[in-house]
Design brief:
Blueprint (H helix, E strand, L loop, with lengths): L1 E5 L5 H10 L3 E5 L10 E4 L4 H11 L2 H9 L4 E4 L1 H6 E4 L10 E6 L10 E5 L9 E5 L4 E5 L4 E6 L2 E7 L2 E4 L10 H11 L1
Parallel strand pairs: 1-2, 1-3, 3-4, 4-12, 5-6
Antiparallel strand pairs: 6-9, 7-8, 10-11, 11-12
Catalytic activity: L-glutamine + H2O = L-glutamate + NH4(+); aldehydo-D-ribose 5-phosphate + D-glyceraldehyde 3-phosphate + L-glutamine = pyridoxal 5'-phosphate + L-glutamate + phosphate + 3 H2O + H(+)
Pathway: Cofactor biosynthesis; pyridoxal 5'-phosphate biosynthesis
Family: Belongs to the glutaminase PdxT/SNO family.
Length: 189
């Protein structure tokens, strides 16, 4: 199993650590040709505006969007979720627009409002796992074929649509591997 992690900015090393712990071959994707031969890709947390600009500057943007549209499994965490979203509240400039969701950026507030909570998520884990939220977005609208995987305080924080997975939180910042196992399962199909 060969999974890429978009390595332009953000929490790259943490995702790679978790994937290696699950015996995946990993690729730090910094150029378009590094998208070839992947079974999946993770778009990490970081700064979505910066990552969006770097996607275009490096020439990765259109090739990545095409691969996702054609079925490449993708998982966006936090900023990665924003990159995938069809719409961003109060912002006319969405990025890849491949996932039928509307997100609210920094929905939980600034850095000081970051928090940790625990949830049991059906289909992913049988007991509560830690969910880390850092200046996190949440989803305010979903399309008819988007499955809600998790809510926190009635806010949608994890969804799946076909080959696309998105989480407001950062599983890579915990010792728990359940979400990474779940994503690997999507990549194996």
């Amino acid at each position: 199993m060969k999974i890429g992690v978009l390595a332009l900015q953000g929490g790259v090393a943490e995702h790679i650590h978790h994937l290696k712990a699950l015996h995946c071959e990993t690729v730090e994707v910094k150029r378009p040709e590094e998208l070839d031969d992947l079974q999946g890709i993770i778009l990490p947390g970081g700064e979505s505006t910066t990552i969006g600009k770097l996607l275009r500057k490096t020439g990765i943007f259109y090739k990545l969007k095409e691969k996702i549209t054609n079925g490449l499994p993708v998982w966006g965490t936090c900023a990665g979720m924003i990159l995938l979203a069809k719409n961003i509240e109060n912002d006319e400039k969405a990025h890849m627009q491949v996932m039928d969701i509307t997100v609210k950026r920094n929905a939980y507030g600034s850095q000081i409002n970051s928090f940790l909570t625990y949830k049991k998520i059906d289909g992913i884990c049988s007991k509560k796992i830690p969910l880390v939220f850092i200046r996190a977005p949440y989803i305010t609208e979903i399309g008819s074929d988007v499955d809600v995987l998790c809510r926190v305080d009635d806010n949608i924080v994890a969804v799946r649509q076909k080959n696309m997975l998105a989480t407001s939180f950062h599983p890579e910042l915990t010792d728990n591997l359940q979400f990474h196992k779940y994503f690997i399962g999507i990549c194996e199909k």
